[in-house]
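Lab manual, section 2.4: Encoding a predicted structure.

Procedure: take the sequence of the chain (252 residues), apply the prediction step described in section 2.3, and record the output as structure tokens. A sample record is shown.
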Amino acid sequence: MPLILLLLALTLDLPAMFGDPSIGQVFSKYELTGTIVVSSIESNQSFTHNKPRAVASYSPASTFKIFNSLIALEENLANNKDELFVWDETPRSIESWNQNHTLKSAFVASCVWCFQSLAEKIGPERYRKHLGDAGFGSLNDSFNVTEFWLDGSLKISAAGQVDFLKRLIRQSLSYSATSYEELEDVMLREATDSYQLRAKTGWTGSIGWFVGYVETSDDTWVFALNADVKDINLMLILPNITKEILKAKGII
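Recorded output:
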């Protein structure tokens, strides 16, 4: 193909590649390089920004706490009532980790040592089965059971996160109704008169995630955003950036 025709073809394909202009404007506003997939449960309508990146896989970091919590609930290693995690009085770098935790408070604080203690109880073989049965990302043959969701041994794309959450919401995965119900409470981040937001952040040190779903009066919208984030301060506003995108699409 002549060079000029190739360049023309690539130019014409840019809108399809990067997707919805209103979402693109939000990414541009914050000078954010990344992707988001937003998809409806009821209508299957979807919006995607940066489609090539949407299918690229990254470490899920702390967003894996969504699935990890469901696994722990199903394995009867956790509940949503008791203080399950007893702090060993070893100071950690994040102050909110230096205390006892319930499953919900550990989820909110993104307490790494709490979920590592669960991981030791679940073990590699049960993790491999849960991940395989749910089709959650790709896992290395050999992995450290207390680090695999942090060190790159497990990877998943934004599109994969959305697919997983849709099956979770539809309860089509092989877990009990009680486990699903308790996870809903664990994940609840914000409740207003018009919507309920359930979600989790995650940060690899270079990739930031915000993954979850928002329930409105007439639909449930699943979303997964990941972006290049090297500054922790940007992680603090990633949820608000996502909400801005949801508002731009008239979802909330």
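Check your result against the sample. The chain has a mean pLDDT of 93.
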